[in-house]
Amino acid sequence: MIGSKSSEIPTTNEPLIKQVANWVLAFDVETIPDEVAAQAKLLLLDTLGCAIAAQHEHAFAAALAAARELGGTPDCTVIGTRERTSLANAILLNGTLIRALDLNDIYVGPRQSGHPSDNIAVALSFGEAQNSNGKEVLAAIVMGYELYGRVDDLADPGSPWDHVTVSSLVAPAMAGFLLKWKPEQLAHALAISAAHGNTLSAVRFGQLSGAKNLANAIVAYTGTLATLLVKHGLTGPLEILESPRGLAHAVFGGADLSPLVRPVEAPFRLMDVNIKAYPCIGTAQTAVAAAVQARSMVSDPLSQIKSIVIRMANIPFVKRQLEDIERRYPRTRETADHSFYYLAAVALLDGAVCAAGFKKERWLDADVKGMMERITIVADDALNAQTTGTFPCVLEFTTQSGENRRVEMIHAPGSAKNRMSNTQVEAKFRNGCGTTLPAARQDALIDQVRHLEQLDSVASLMRNLQS
Questions:
Q1: Reduced to 3 states, what is the DSSP secondary structure of residue 138?
Q2: Nearest-CA neighbor of 197 among 251, 143, 127?
Q3: Which residues pair with residue 394 across a beta bridge?
Q4: Residue 333 near residue 358, CB atoms below 8 Å
Q5: pTM (2 decimals)?
Q6: How far apart are CA 127 and CA 94, in angstroms?
Q7: How many CB atoms lie within 10 A of CB 153?
Q8: 280 near 353, Cβ under 8 Å?
């Protein structure tokens, strides 16, 4: 139960997937601490802004065209549009919108990082379809973040499986919670989804494709399908977690997954989530912030800067990205927003990294290529001690006249130890809305999210998200 002082794992002979179902359904909104609820609402507002800002992204256009071909009853809202579509399609589309700009929040765990806000699409669309109230949706979000963080903390960082595989458990958990299912039903949905929701990490290496933007949305879509199948009587493999051919052995390197069902205690995983200031990979947020700061030290970076060295922590998650040589010379938009070299170069030249630069294919410009050639990135053991919840970096550059300048950035703007204020998150939300939603509607949405617990139905929030 929430609030229990015991951190002991319950002793039972039930399959672990059934224990996870029991844990999910025991989650109680009334015991969520005020500061956790406040942070959850801030993360929700940030997520909505990210989704609205992504209306013109290619990944969303492809997903929307596919959803129109699939058809289905118009039960749910597609954020920022006039479209209504089926429950499963809405989760696919809204999940794509949330992720497409690489601007949504990131959980930085001790072993692996990921994006729990991807699954807010599940909470919103199931909440709308079920006519759930704001309290229930808030609880689903907090529970989803907690489960996401717990699974991520047990993941093998060297695994060939992508971190979105975590959502094969999280998505049906959030759905079953809002459906108010019995543990047996939810266990079967979790089992089916876990059996079919695994994603290879190849989606996030080499010259990245648009499929990276849909990776979690497809897993959540699969989780929704599993949930609907169970609704109509299908059963799943209940030994899916502990079986020799199950998730723990095949995906998590033989890890003991029983800590997933420990009672919930502070600190909640949600409080360790970072809000992104820049539309790019989470590991580069500090490097971008450092480069933006360095830009203020010179009047003409291209003519004044001779060389740049960026030092990053020598940890597996960062090393794997540095070893991906394709990121040295990005040729796609998706690779560019994952390229430390491009991101630092454009931040040094423009003083910012923004979505407009990706639209203009800035990585192909001669000035950016020239600046990228001057950058060396090294993994530095000296930064490892400061990696809790962040990806610290030090940027040093030498001018043509021989001067040396240095910027240290341990916690990027928006990180758990350098939080954005409510005002800053609201400004980011409004910037994301642009002209898609009028100012009065933006005001209404901010107010609804701020008082989410008071909403009789989340459907009213979804109506305000229509353009």
A1: helix
A2: 251
A3: 311, 408
A4: yes
A5: 0.95
A6: 13
A7: 17
A8: yes
